[in-house]
Amino acid sequence: MHLPGTKPERIEPPAEPDVEVRIRGLMMDPSPQSPVVVLNDIGGEVVLPIWVGIFEANAIALEIEKATLPRPMTHDLLRNVIDGLNGRVTKVVVGSLLENTFHATIWIDQQGEIVAIDARPSDAIALALRADCPIYVSRQVLDRARENASGSAATTPDDLRRWLENLNDDEMGRYKM
Questions:
Q1: CA 141 → CA 94, 129, 147, 160, 166, distances in Å?
Q2: Does residue 75 form part of some domain?
Q3: Which of 42, 50, 96, 170 is most buried, by the most CB atoms less than 10 A from its CB?
Q4: Residues 84, 115, 40, 145: is their CA dihedral positive or negative?
Q5: Adjacent-strand bridge partners of 38
Q6: Span 49-91, pLDDT tens digits
Q7: Which distant-in-sequence residues (6+ apart) come within 8 Å of 27 by Cβ?
Q8: Residue 25, phi then psi, degrees to nearest 5
Q9: 2 lies in a domain?
């Protein structure tokens, strides 16, 4: 039995190419004291900050650092369940930005059947690190994020990108991948 809205959607991957990204770093936004995952495209031209919760940031940091814990954390459990059901996480995609909130999809191949599962970007990223699969951002999200940032009088997207790109490793709180 599935509750409304909880059943995974079985669909084909999108035809439009997404932009592959890596985690450039994890840092604290000084004003709201909120963790930020900073994504950077493979070519190093696109920078996308995503604000996340402290627990999710911790889960991402633990995996980046390859910390060994005595018991599985939630994202480890999720990876183990997927593996146990003969599935494989093939990619995660930050695919939409609605009302200033990013939404992601976890793509799972379960014996040739593609399953798409809605997720928070922070959870999707934490799982992607554990499953050693690529992380993507849709072109629409990158365009929309630029539009939203350009609506801000204080900061333009280029200003934000330059500021993030010019942070040194100590300022960024960067974790080597």
A1: 7, 21, 10, 16, 23
A2: yes
A3: 50
A4: negative
A5: 25, 49
A6: 999 999 999 999 999 999 989 999 999 999 999 999 999 999 9
A7: 35, 36, 38, 167, 171, 172, 173, 174
A8: 180, 175
A9: no
pTM over 0.85: no
What lies within 8 Å, CB to CB, of 114 at 6+ separation is 10, 11, 12, 13, 90, 107, 108
Residue 8 lies inside a defined structural domain of this protein? no
- How far is CA 156 from its chain centroid? 22
- Asked if residue 5 is part of any domain, the answer here is no
Host domain of residue 133? 19-172
Total domains in the chain come to: 1
pLDDT per residue as tens digits for the range 139-171: 888 877 766 655 554 444 455 555 556 665 555
DSSP 81: H
